[in-house]
Design a protein that fits this description.
Blueprint (H helix, E strand, L loop, with lengths): L1 H6 L49 H21 L7 H8 L3 H29 L1 H21 L3 H15 L5 H8 L3 H21 L3
């Protein structure tokens, strides 16, 4: 009885916006996640040699690990002044409002950066954006590490926010690019964890 009912299940259309991730019957001629797996690789790897989904699993894992470390470090350096308010107020002879303004500049850099880097990444590629923002962050850290007045602290916070802006947009896209559909939820969670770990580190 059950066999008859299963054989008579009619064809159905996929709901728009969804993908089939599991070959339940094992009869689909599609690329799968291993010889004995019934998980369908979505999206299927293209013929483009630059497609990350064509890389070996080991290479994709290494690239994702580097993305995790980059996101963690950028999150750590941006607006790290929070736990150091007292020290800055005493060392620079300024008010708490002045130090709070530096944090505002950091978030201004983050906001402006997100607006700028998205079209730049689409036109010139994510690699250019990552390298440029890393250089901006390094310059900002040098300014902040050697600065001895409030003006340089302002510059540091703005540059660090601008340099860290990809962590709020491009990093998540890169995580998706490196993984198949059934892996993306975990990958995105790990990247978000890197951002929160970087933020938590700033409190110590």
């Amino acid at each position: 009885m059950f066999d008859k009912e299963i054989n008579e299940i009619p064809e159905y259309e996929m709901v728009p916006g969804t993908v089939q991730l599991v070959d339940v019957t094992g009869t689909l001629e599609v690329e799968k996640n291993g010889d004995k797996s019934n998980i369908i690789l979505q999206p299927p790897p293209s013929k483009n040699i630059n497609d990350p989904l064509r890389w070996s699993k080991r290479k994709r894992r290494i690239q994702f690990f580097l993305l995790f470390i980059w996101s963690f470090l950028q999150s750590s350096t941006s607006n790290f002044t929070g736990p150091l308010y007292d020290a800055f107020v005493e060392a620079l002879d300024v008010t708490y409002q002045d130090i709070s303004n530096t944090a505002a500049l950091c978030f201004t850099g983050l906001g402006l950066g997100v607006i700028i880097i998205q079209p730049c990444a689409a036109k010139y590629g994510k690699r250019v954006v990552y390298l440029t923002c890393t250089l901006i962050a390094i310059i900002g850290c040098i300014v902040g590490g050697t600065g001895k007045n409030l003006a340089l602290l302002y510059i540091f916070n703005f540059l660090s926010g601008l340099g860290a802006s990809p962590v709020d947009s491009i990093a998540e896209v890169s995580a998706n690019d490196l993984h198949f559909q059934h892996e993306r939820s975990t990958a995105l969670s790990v990247i978000i964890m890197a951002l929160y770990f970087g933020s938590v580190r700033k409190t110590f």
